[in-house]
Design brief:
Blueprint: E1 8-12, E2 18-22, E3 58-64, E4 85-87, E5 96-101, E6 107-114, E7 122-127, H1 128-133, E8 140-148, E9 162-169, H2 172-186, E10 189-195, E11 200-209, H3 212-224, E12 232-235
Parallel strand pairs: 3-7, 4-6
Antiparallel strand pairs: 1-2, 3-8, 4-7, 5-6, 5-8, 9-11, 9-12, 10-11
Length: 237
């Protein structure tokens, strides 16, 4: 996935390894120096007969464009920075979300087709066009309103399966060391290879559970056991 900054985050592993995280869904942030693109036209927002709000999640939104335009997303769909899509860690693919920019009152509807962002405090990573539609040159504080599946005819999303991401490494040996440390206590542990476009990273993900509550408990146990500093619960299906 992609990221709006190239910060690395540390995840401590009980005196064995310091985890350098690649940031925010591994999405690169494009700020004032980014290349110019034509202004997008946001989609028409009409009434939705099945609108429902799930917890009104509030946090920071980021956005991503190049070099991820034309690359596959986690869902397998090809990313188009001019579509109104977004990455979220736990919402099912195809979910429609209304993003409220709390800084200027503007809103945009997006469809979830990717995973991320993997940066503390950030809750959604918007496409370039979606960010432009709500006047968001960089980060913005937003609230999410869950509208439902992509269409009323869509089949219900399958039950969620969740894991906890505890690190992302350029060196696969570091990923293997962290896996070996955690696996005896909190298996299963998987290493996922991800080509970011400007480098290959190896993500370490712990567990395979069927509820967000259980995944959040696992994340807390990993932090309490000094096996990770930053943890990100992510839906893997």
């Amino acid at each position: 996935m992609r990221l709006q900054s190239n910060r690395r985050e540390a995840a401590a592993s009980a005196a064995l390894v310091v985890v350098l995280f690649s940031t925010g869904c591994l999405h690169r942030h494009h700020g004032a120096a980014a290349r110019r693109y034509p202004s997008p036209t946001p989609p028409t927002i009409g009434p939705s007969p099945a609108v429902r709000i799930e917890q009104g999640e509030v946090g920071l939104a980021s956005w991503y464009g190049h070099p991820y335009h034309g690359r596959a997303t986690t869902s397998g769909e090809i990313y188009n920075m001019y579509d109104f899509t977004a990455a979220h860690r736990t919402l099912p693919f195809g979910a429609r979300v209304r993003v409220h920019n709390l800084e200027n009152g503007r809103t945009v509807d997006v469809r979830i087709n990717d995973r991320g962002p993997f940066v503390a405090g950030r809750i959604i990573d918007l496409s370039y066009s979606a960010a432009q539609a709500i006047g968001m040159p960089g980060l913005a504080r937003v609230q999410l309103q869950i509208l439902g599946p992509e269409t009323q005819e869509s089949a219900p999303a399958p039950p969620g399966i969740y894991a906890v991401q505890v690190g992302a490494f350029e060196d696969p040996n570091n990923a293997q060391r962290l896996k070996d440390l955690i696996a005896p206590r909190h298996g299963p542990v998987n290493i996922e290879r991800y080509d970011r476009g400007d480098g290959v990273f190896y993500r370490v993900r712990v567990g395979r559970v069927s509820s967000l509550e259980t995944a959040n408990q696992l994340a807390q146990e990993l932090r309490s056991g000094n096996l990770a500093t930053d943890t990100f619960v992510v839906r893997v299906n």
